[in-house]
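hiii so my PI (J.) wants the whole complex modelled not just the main chain, which honestly fair. so below is everything: two entries, each one labled with what it is. i double checked the lines twice but i was tired so who knows lol
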Amino acid sequence: MDTADPTVVERPDYSALLTELFRANEIDQFQLMMADLHPAEIAHFIEALHPHDRQRAWQLLADQRHGDVLVELSDPVRESLIERMGAEELSASTQGLEADDMADLVGDLPQSRAQQLLGSLAQQDRQRLENILSYEEDTAGGLMNPDLLTIRADITLEVVVRYLRQRGSMPTGTDQLAVVNRENVFRGVLYVTDLLTLPVETLVGEVMDSDGVVQILDTTPDREVAKLFTDRDLISAPVVDSNNRLLGRITIDDVVDVMREDADESFLGMAGVQKDEDMFAPVLRSARRRNIWLGVNLVTAFAASFVIGLFDRALEELVALAILMPIVASMGGNAGNQTLALIIRGIALEQINRHNARSLLRKELRVGLINGIVWASVVSLLSTLWFGNPGLGAVIGAAMIINMMLAAAAGFLVPMTLKRLNIDPAIASTVLLTSITDIMGFFVFLGLATLYLI
Amino acid sequence: MDTADPTVVERPDYSALLTELFRANEIDQFQLMMADLHPAEIAHFIEALHPHDRQRAWQLLADQRHGDVLVELSDPVRESLIERMGAEELSASTQGLEADDMADLVGDLPQSRAQQLLGSLAQQDRQRLENILSYEEDTAGGLMNPDLLTIRADITLEVVVRYLRQRGSMPTGTDQLAVVNRENVFRGVLYVTDLLTLPVETLVGEVMDSDGVVQILDTTPDREVAKLFTDRDLISAPVVDSNNRLLGRITIDDVVDVMREDADESFLGMAGVQKDEDMFAPVLRSARRRNIWLGVNLVTAFAASFVIGLFDRALEELVALAILMPIVASMGGNAGNQTLALIIRGIALEQINRHNARSLLRKELRVGLINGIVWASVVSLLSTLWFGNPGLGAVIGAAMIINMMLAAAAGFLVPMTLKRLNIDPAIASTVLLTSITDIMGFFVFLGLATLYLI
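here's the output for the full assembly
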């Protein structure tokens, strides 16, 4: 293995290649290629298969890799594969998984299967796992791995190095050793690089980092953990309980996963899709899962229709109103969405506080006013030319300016209010916002028209 | 420093605290607190300030921290601060920055200032910097840091350790040393943890990882780099040219920044906002930057109005059509956006290929059909009750089913087509999709009504 000369190749699209081998039934080649890939890559490939092909690909994958790939799969795909695995098969394939990965897996299993799996573990492993499982999945405690090396402050670097050589290995991704006292109270960390560069006779206590180090409380939400890692360029960080006792460590690879899921959730949430939706889920399940927001949207759409219905006389007299009214609603929705996205991002970055909220709102209202005036002029002119009715042009112009300012206000207030109600603004804001801009757009435009044109 | 006993505190909201100290003019306290924060945290705080306060906060920040904070600031805020810095001040504050951070900074400066800054560097540093700057910012070459330790394969671990102790330090975040031959051709990597756990008399060549290691080609796009790091849980990776010569390394902290920017761009892009928009940018600048999508949206809104205008006779005869038509458009837009978000994510994860594209489209059409039937029944019933017109109920039901299937098709085809045209689907898809669902919704509904009701 180690003598092979690495050569530079453009990374081929492994997913397409694998799929071709799989479909052509070139089993040997297929298995050779799978052996070269990392678990996450195999997981991507399996997720991109049609459900009835996944089972076969899964069986072609070497048994000893099942565990690592399970960890990387998205929840619905993982569940569908585990459903068909026997108890022994599952317990065999999850042996050797890191404790935090194992906890992730067990946490998503149905109660009975989780008990089965826990029962198959050695006493000590089971206790460690149950300890992690006692935390919410989205906290530092749920993310942490209890595998870590601890040392005392009163020994020299030489002793540490001798101990490590005797041990013969370190947990993957170890960039620091935790320094604890006799009661397992966290004192600081010793960087692995310092072990290699500083004089061997130095005491750990003299060179450990205790002041600048971030120890993370076990109950810290995972988003907060991700923020700490990004802001401070961490590779790993110790996790402690409220008595500062060391519990485990969080590593950057798990944090990267949190970030990716979070971004996914916001992105899909803005469009009214739940995270973890399997692209190839059965049609009925997908249809059902997406119905929540379609239902909410229908209620708001009927509310808008109801508002339009208030002005049926005006619409009967002047059909141009029906023709033009979607423009007012649509431009308001678009402008409001721009404000909305900025505010949601500002909330996520914790950049909006009571000192600047007011001036932000004022700014967005001004942007709404200016862009309202700009586009209202265009629309006003075009409408006047189209229908030869300057009054209509004036009314639609005024309605657009008002609606774009309302949209700016809604784009600010909707996410701020959801945030205060502890609802994730990324999930529910868009539908709420567009219903406001639709309803207000129709109301203002048809209302002004009734007052001045009819 | 090192004797302080670390204590566990809930992390206070530093941003709010800092803002209060700043506004209360408690300069000493403010500066003490800033000294404790990391550059990214100070950058977040400054970005959340109103522009006229940023300059003052900047001056209160210790000079030697200016460089690190500049690196973390978003482009528009950074530019506004640099504008006011003298050439010497800028060159002093950027001394000691890592080469990749420096390249980021210089790459965004106006030509003349970049030249000034480059001119102030020592010959060797300038050359290294110009080398990075010769790459596109969004490639592995633009991300890499040329600072790395290299060793030869034919020495023992003991020699390596002795060399490191003499050197006395390693670049931050070093988890592996690159092994190269005399011609600087990359041969493999030696993990720092192996240095500490394996017998000292071992030869580097015997234990280096050459087969399983990912060396990244300098021209690889940064998204691809991020994918590799996430899929393979990397902490750092060597960058090579097409002759496999070692150029530098990429570290996870820079990759995390790429991921964050990417997620930001998609999220804001879906709402028609350009990334890097400064929340507190001057009103006029913000207004102008947002006008592109408002303009596009206006064109499509007028197109929808034009379609409605084709059916003015029908609208005059049956005002209920005007009242109900937004429902058809809105439900189509909502359903289409759900498909759209899933497909955009699938494209980003490279999970859509020519083998599964067809069955994905088929699935989305079926979901559209089922949810179309579900919600069309509801709308059909309510419309019939509202207007006492079963024919109208039938027409709106049929129109909704057709439009929701069209929406599913558009949600699939719009991003796939943009992708083929090399346009980022996350940026332009939403506006295109909703214009299609609006136009088709109005056309189908009013068209069917004209055929069967008028």
